[in-house]
Amino acid sequence: MKYIKFLIVAITGFLFSSCDSDEFLNPLPDSAIVAETFFQSDADVLAGLIGIYDAVQGVNENTESSNARYNRGVQLEYLLTEHRSDNTRSKTLEGSRADFHRYIVEDDNIQSEDYWQSMYEIIFRANNVLKYVDNAEEANLNKYSAEAKFLRAYAYFNLVRLYGAVPLVTTVVGPTEKELLFTRVEESKVYEQIIADLQEGVQHLDDKHKSRASKAAAQGMLAKVYLTLPTPNYAGAKELCEAIIGTGNLELEENFRDVFYKELNNEIIFAIQYLSGNPDESQGFSSEFTSYKRQGRQDGLNIVNPNLAEDFIAYGGNRTAVSYAAFGDDADLAVPENAEVIKFLPDGSDISDSDLPTYGDSPANAGNDWIILRYSDVLLMHAEAIMEGQNTTEASAIDSYMKVRARAGFDAVDDRPNVLTIDDLLLERRVELAFENHRFFDLLRFGVAHDVLSAHAEEMGYTSYNMRRLILPIPAREINLSDGILTQNPQ
Fold it and tell me: Who's near 484: CB < 8 A, 6+ residues apart?
């Protein structure tokens, strides 16, 4: 995807200029005539598709004010996910970013507003491509359509899990069509659309790409959707996971560190790429995860909670040294209190000297990819689907679970459990996928979010937590723009 971006960045920047903070997610350029004029050929439709990935990638905060809505895409997602789980927090209590880990996010939170806008930016760009996809060559038409729908499903899946019922927009609409733009649709309808979009991906996509939608990515995401439904489709999820496993195209990296520092490796199913040193194509979250020797704008974000460090020490195996690091006084503690995430160290980082870690020439313009789906996640979902919400002795479930454990250095025979419990699986997902924005969604899917997070909030002194805080408030800005059509979640 990186090489394509250089060819089309000027075109997509002109075509999809919808970061105007005074407009509600303008689904079209300044006029529909511009879009109709642009989408004339297969190359134009492909450029439009890559423009959707640009929206997922988001805008590095170093290019624009960090206190403005600017379609940050996935670059702020850890705030809405990891910070609202028991995994991580902000180092300080200052600013709107610190609201997430204390469960005090209100409807005017600027990062939540930005994420909402970013996901709908993806959706509207996808809808725009779908409107004109017939201008593609016949051989590419189904593939391009499925790719756009995969990305639309990805955005809606994030929105429905974070905000509950949301507006469901599947066609290009004008900013005056407020009923279509702002009417919330019940979650079941949103999931129906997500499933339909991903099923098209399973049918029409291939596995040629890792930084663009693929058949395996559609299968993996659909499996997770099936597991997330109020009444999970365990059989469907199992079949999809086994289809991915059965291709033989994917394998676990022997070295856990290579998962994050060898781009598009054998374990990656779908990742969003960035370019190091290029302000327009880089990411800033890697620098924000530093605090001891701060490289970002903030004092330190995604700081590791001690209870997660304890789980790593007991169950992380060789993943622990690759997942977090402690500096200064924390390095001498058995359980660090302010450890830093190191899965996404900025390019050129050298933290071998814990007193003087270095982070390369341009840490705030990092090129580390963001991994959305990888093979170990599929293996653990496979076990989850077989278990159907219950403890199990099923060998195939334990086999998939142990493949992930064995890569972490545990013995495939001596450490193999006779019974695989739900708690075992959830714990394994925690240490395997820590800091990759899965934990909060896992707690919801396993039905233990309130129990786990209420205990966590009590331990940490977050007195504002209650069950209603599991769903984010709808941004007030969007409610105001809707003239009251868009309704608020209970607070």
Answer: none
Sign of CA dihedral 420, 422, 427, 429: positive
Span 276-280, average pLDDT? 92
In angstroms, what CA-CA distances link 342 with 72, 97, 320? 21, 20, 10
Strand bridging mode 370-374 / 358-359: unpaired
* Other CB atoms within 10 A of residue 256 CB: 23
Q: Which domain holds residue 314?
A: 281-368
- Angle between helix 42-57 and 2-15 (nearest 10): 90
Question: What are the start-end ranges of the E strands in 224-305?
Answer: 268-272, 303-304
> Of 188, 184, 151, which is closest to residue 54 (Cα–Cα)?
151
Neighbouring C-alpha atoms within 13 Å toward the C-beta of 192:
8
Question: In sequence order, what are the beta bridge partners of 65?
Answer: none
Six token digits for residue 202: 């399973």
CA distance 131 to 41: 13
Length of the chain: 491
User: Are 319 and 359 part of one and the same domain?
Assistant: yes
Q: Sign of the C-alpha dihedral, residues 209, 157, 448, 340?
A: positive
Q: Rounded to an integer, what distance in angstroms lies between the CA atom of residue 33 and that of residue 23?
A: 19
In a domain, 219, yes or no: no
Same domain, 312 and 359: yes
Task: Please indicate, yes or no, whether residues 438 and 474 belong to a single structural domain of this protein.
Answer: no
pLDDT band at 68 (very low <50, low <70, confident <90, very high): low
Main-chain phi, psi angles of 257, to 5 degrees:
-60, -35
Give percent of the chain above pLDDT 70: 92
How far is it, in rounded angstroms, from Cα 292 to Cα 280? 27
Q: What distance in Å separates the CA atoms of residue 248 and residue 256, rounded to the nearest whole number?
A: 19
Based on the structure, what is the number of domains in the chain? 3
pLDDT tens per residue, range 80-134: 999 999 999 999 999 999 999 999 999 999 999 999 999 999 999 999 999 999 9
Residues 6 or more apart whose CB falls under 8 angstroms from that of 276 comprise 282, 347, 362, 365, 366, 367
Residue with the two structure tokens 């489709």: 233
Q: Which residues contact 44 (CB under 8 A, 6 or more apart)?
A: 38, 132, 135
Tokens matching residue 162: 């974070």
Whether residues 263 and 380 share a domain: the answer is yes
Question: pLDDT tens, 7-24?
Answer: 333 344 434 443 333 343
Q: Which two tokens stand for residue 132?
A: 């004109």
Q: In the numeric block, which tokens belong to residue 390?
A: 């219950």
Q: Are 374 and 267 in contact (CB under 8 A)?
A: yes
Q: What is the mean pLDDT of the chain?
A: 92
**Token pair belonging to 131:** 């409107």
Does pTM top 0.85 for this prediction? yes
- How far is Cα 370 from Cα 271, in angstroms, rounded to an integer? 6
